[in-house]
Amino acid sequence: MSELICLELSIVLWYVYVFTQGAFAPGALGLMYLSGPRDERREPKGLLCARATRALANYVENLGPFVAADLALIVTQHTGGLGATIWIAARIVYLPLYLSGVAFIRTLCWLVSLVGLGMMLARLAGA
After folding, report:
1. pTM of the entire structure?
2. Domains in the chain: how many in total?
3. N or C: which end of the chain has fewer CB within 10 A?
4. Closest CA to 9 of 102, 17, 106
5. CATH number at residue 58
6. Average pLDDT estimate for 6-17
7. How would DSSP label each residue in 35-90?
8. Are 79 and 30 in contact (CB under 8 A)?
């Protein structure tokens, strides 16, 4: 899969993470809170909403470095590696694992995404 397609998929995947969290939020936080100014911080009451919120936060934390590396690969024409594809695949698998509460395999999946990111950086460095 090309780096450009992976970049596009990363945005689609961001929507999936956001909408997944948003699907659980009304039941866990209440519509009045969600439609209001949210001046006070509330912790989600539902287990799935809390997991989806943490999974989304993790995705956002990892999306920035991925986009930076992916754009750098595209701009410098160092494309053709598997790092971006591995990152995308790992992040696709990560969400259902997190929602299901699968602990060790979920962490392994996150580590695989970091390996993909490392492969992207190595390709940028010319390795």
Report:
1. 0.89
2. 1
3. C
4. 17
5. 1.20.120.550
6. 98
7. HS---S----SSHHHHHHHHHHHHHHHHHHHHHHHHHHHHHHT----SHHHHHHHH
8. no
